[in-house]
Amino acid sequence: METQVASLAIKEANTHYPVHPLLKKRWSARAFSQEEISEDTLHTLIEAAAWSASSMNEQPWRYLYTTRRNPELFEAFHSCLMAGNQPWAKDADVLLLSLAEKNHQKTGQPNAYALHDVGAANTSLLLQAASMDIYGHMMGGFDRAKTSSLLQIPDHLEIVCFIALGYLASPDSLEEPFRGRELNARTRKPLSEILYKDSLDLGLE
Known about the structure:
Keywords: Oxidoreductase. By secondary structure, this protein is α+β, with helices and mostly antiparallel strands. 34% of the residues lie in helices and 16% in strands. The chain contains 8 helices and 4 strands. A 4-stranded antiparallel β-sheet has the order 1-2-4-3, with helices on both faces.
């Protein structure tokens, strides 16, 4: 428990400006406990995602999930992950597949903002989770072809990412190098590298 508390303190964002505590609390954990996420709780997280902003109110986000209570399907989800994610993602209570509708439902034309909107929905989901002491880890390391085939993803949906969800456990439950990563402080680029006033001074000729 002491190590778990230590990881919470280490991972809290050290911001220069007073951002909301929930934003400082959210981080991509890898150490998950055996505590179950109830169906009502999971629906709460998806409800939070559903109220995100989207271009033309298309709401292109779709989610497919499984839990450890369904070992066969959970293993199917888990087998789609790359080797760097499998050792710790196996302990998540929920594995969630984030998907995007490729085309506008109203016109059938490609939706250029679908991935942006699904990313915003995923952030809302993870912030709601953090408010309930649930931690999520988005993963881009997966076999896209295998995921599409094994989980029978229809052509009109684009695979965005996997998300592991669970309650926090001590980093001591992890093997290296994952334990060390769980105990390293988070960092971000300074605002001077991402914020420009009046013009984009990118140093380009």
